[in-house]
Structures are given as structure tokens and as C-alpha cells.
Write a structure and sequence with these properties.
By secondary structure, the protein is an alpha/beta fold. It has 2 domains: 242 residues, no CATH class; 129 residues, Roll (CBS-domain). The chain contains 11 helices and 11 strands. The strands form 3 sheets. It has a 5-stranded mixed β-sheet with strand order 1-2-3-4-5, covered by helices on one side. Helix 2 packs antiparallel against helix 3, helix 3 runs antiparallel to helix 5 and helix 6 runs antiparallel to helix 7. It is elongated. The N terminus is likely disordered.
């Protein structure tokens, strides 16, 4: 669907597209809208209801700032060859969801820094507006321009902090990746830095009021708690993912690969049974079309229930299992297991958890199958 969507989807309200990428406003975003209006509406130096209207305008400008930030990620991501699935603005900011293979350290850093770069540009526009507007004659307009400038300075500054899950952390991870040649090392280093950043930011916001001789207010403590929990969780996940990637890099596809029986769709049940006997070490049977392209796994349980008098006439396609997205993975036996494991676990966008996947070589040949059970057992044995 092109353009804006009117319905509420699983990611929130779809409001349009940026370079073909769908953009959503998360269902949690109205919460921050209400908070901003109530908090800033009481303190703005404008009389009456105008203060709350200005606060609402500030909330919308903040939304635009976050959208531009995420659009920067999405646009640069597509330019460097990544698949961009969606942009979502939420209670704690926004995120751009990417899919596909690793881009490499340089391109990853470019994608990470594109978001803050967009906010730096917007901050410059805000500064130009505040310089051009006469605060005495147009106080409301000047306040909005100043809020726009400060919002973008804040968004850029926070996101450039050097720790995951922030953009600065992604840039640090890419730098370490480039130096060491190991993405896992970059993720672990940037994740630990992210934990340090979380402690530092939370400590600063809580200590600053104490230095002035007053206790932190409830509003500050709530937001520090929410943002701190978000940052700590993101940093911890990065560390865990880095360790998992380290383990998977030491395991090759060949170590968990099992043979596969491939049969044409018209093959009789009896012939399939005989092929399974001949290749008893194979866990799965895959059905292929006349061109040799795999169309799905065969249900061996259903095959075993065929009456003996029908095995010579029932075709293999009668036992075709509905293939799940990502059930065929292109890989070589010498590759590490990371791509295969991600598909099995359903960590690839648009995919779900699977018991097994078919491995197809880069030349199109069917190499074998890899099961989730075998991968887990191999990783536990490391």
C-alpha cells in the first residue's frame, strides 16, 4: 500500500513512506505527547491556553526531529545496499528495522551516523530561525524555533554517546570491527561502553539537582528509570549477541550438516520410501519441481501412514509441507553457522522459528539440511 495508511497496524499508525520504506507512529507515542503538553504547558512564558498550544507544537517538532533522524538511517541504509523494512517512532524515540546481511564496518558506521547528522542539520535550521525572528515581536514563533533547535541538539547529542544501543555505540562497534576484523568484538566492547554510558547518564541526571541543594523530582526519576532501563537492556542484548556471534563463528555448517533426499514431485510414495532406506542418515526429504528447484519438505509421518496398496500410485507432492519463509538458506559447508542459525531461530525479519532449513550452495546445488536441535547441541558442546 502506497502513501498514508488509515488503520492501526501491528507497529502502530502508518503515516507514509520515506524512499519506499513504511513509516509508523507507535501506539505509545501519544503518551509522550500528553506528557510534553502537561509539563511544558505549565512553565512556558506565555499566558493562558497559548502555552499548551506551544507545548503541543513542541511535541510535534520533536516528532519531526525523530522522523528525520530515522529517515537518515533508512535512506543511507538503502544507499549502501541494506534492506530497510520499516521506521517506527515510539515512546522512547524511534528505530529503523534493517534486514539482510552484514554491511561491513564502514557502511555500518555510515548508517549509524546518518541519523544524528540529520539532527545537526535541523539544529542549524533552528538556530537560523531563532536568529531571524524578533523575540519581542514574535515570542511564540521564537520559542518554537528555539525548542526545535534544542530538541535536535539533544537528539543528536544523546544518540552520539559512545555505547550501544545508541548510534554512537554502533559507530564504536564498527570501528572495533574494522580494527579487529571481528564484528562480535565490536558488539561486546560497545555493549560494555553502553552500560557505562547508562550509569553515567543516570548518575548525572540524579546528581545535578543534589548539587543545587534539592532532591530530584518524581518526573525526572521516572524518565531516568525508563531511559536507563531501555539503554541497559539494549547494551546487555548487544553483549549477549556478541558472545553468541563469537560462538557461532567457530562452528561451520559442515559440522551440523545432514544429507538430504531430493525427489521430484511426481515420485511415488514407494520410491520415496526406498530412497529414505538407501540414505538412512538423511533426516529430511525435499520435493523439487521439474527444474530442480526445492518447493518444500515432505511430511515423513504422513508418508509412513500410506496403505501398502497405494504406495505405488500416490505422488510425493501429496505429502508436501507448507514451506516457512526462509526455509532455504544459501550457504557453503565452510561458512560459519551464523546466517543459518539466525534463520532457524526466526531472527531474520519476516521469518519464524523453524525446526530445520535446507542448505543450498551458491551454485544452486542442494547441500543438505541443518536442524535447530543439532545447532543447539553443537553450540552447547563448545
Amino acid at each position: 500500500m502506497n502513501g498514508a495508511g488509515s488503520g492501526v497496524q501491528s507497529y502502530g499508525w502508518r503515516v507514509g513512506r520515506v524512499g519506499g520504506v513504511p513509516v509508523y507512529i507507535g501506539r505509545s507515542w501519544p503518551i509522550i505527547l500528553v506528557v510534553i503538553v502537561l509539563v511544558f504547558g505549565r512553565v512556558l512564558p506565555v499566558p493562558g491556553p497559548m502555552a499548551y498550544l506551544l507545548a503541543a507544537g513542541y511535541a510535534l517538532l520533536l516528532l519531526i526531529s525523530v522522523l528525520v533522524h530515522e529517515a537518515g538511517h533508512a535512506i543511507v541504509g538503502r544507499r549502501v545496499g541494506s534492506r530497510v523494512d520499516r521506521v517506527v517512532v515510539t515512546l522512547l524515540g524511534g528505530h529503523t528495522v534493517f534486514g539482510g546481511t552484514d554491511l561491513g564496518p564502514a557502511k555500518s558506521a555510515a548508517v549509524a551516523l546518518a541519523g544524528p547528522a540529520g539532527n545537526v542539520v535541523l539544529a542549524g535550521i533552528g538556530w537560523a530561525l531563532t536568529s531571524a525572528i524578533d523575540v519581542e515581536q514574535a515570542t511564540a514563533a521564537w520559542l518554537l524555533a528555539e525548542a526545535f533547535r534544542l530538541a535536535n541538539v539533544l537528539v543528536a547529542a544523546i544518540n552520539l554517546l559512545p555505547g550501544l544501543p545508541l548510534d554512537g555505540g554502533h559507530a564504536i562497534a564498527a570501528l572495533v570491527w574494522a580494527i579487529t576484523g571481528q564484528r562480535a568484538t565490536g558488539m561486546i566492547v560497545a555493549g560494555w561502553l553502553g552500560r557505562g554510558v547508562t550509569i553515567g547518564v543516570a548518575g548525572w541526571f540524579l546528581a545535578e539537582p543534589l548539587r543545587s541543594g534539592r532532591a530530584p523530582d518524581l518526573y525526572t526519576m521516572i524518565w531516568v528509570g525508563l531511559i536507563g532501563a531501555f539503554l541497559w537492556h539494549g547494551a546487555s542484548r548487544a553483549i549477549q549477541a556478541g558472545h553468541a556471534r563469537w560462538m557461532m563463528s567457530s562452528l561451520t555448517v559442515s559440522e551440523v550438516l545432514r544429507p538430504v533426499v531430493a525427489v521430484p514431485a511426481h515420485t511415488t510414495a514407494g520410491a520415496v520410501m526406498q530412497a529414505c532406506i538407501d540414505r538412512a542418515e538423511a533426516d529430511h526429504v525435499v520435493i523439487v519441481d521439474p527444474a530442480g528447484t526445492p518447493i518444500g519438505f515432505l511430511d515423513r509421518t504422513a508418508l509412513g501412514s500410506v496403505p501398502e496398496h497405494e504406495i505405488a500410485r500416490v505422488p510425493a507432492v501429496s505429502f508436501l509441507l507448507r514451506p516457512l519463509p526462509g526455509w532455504v538458506v544459501t550457504a557453503e559447508p565452510t561458512d560459519d553457522i551464523s546466517v543459518v542459525a539466525s534463520s532457524l531461530a526466526g531472527h531474520v525479519e519476516g521469518q519464524t522459528r523453524k525446526d530445520a532449513v535446507l542448505i543450498r550452495g551458491s551454485d544452486g546445488r542442494l547441500v543438505g539440511t541443518v536442524s535447530l536441535v543439532d545447532v543447539n547441541q553443537a553450540l552447547q558442546a563448545l
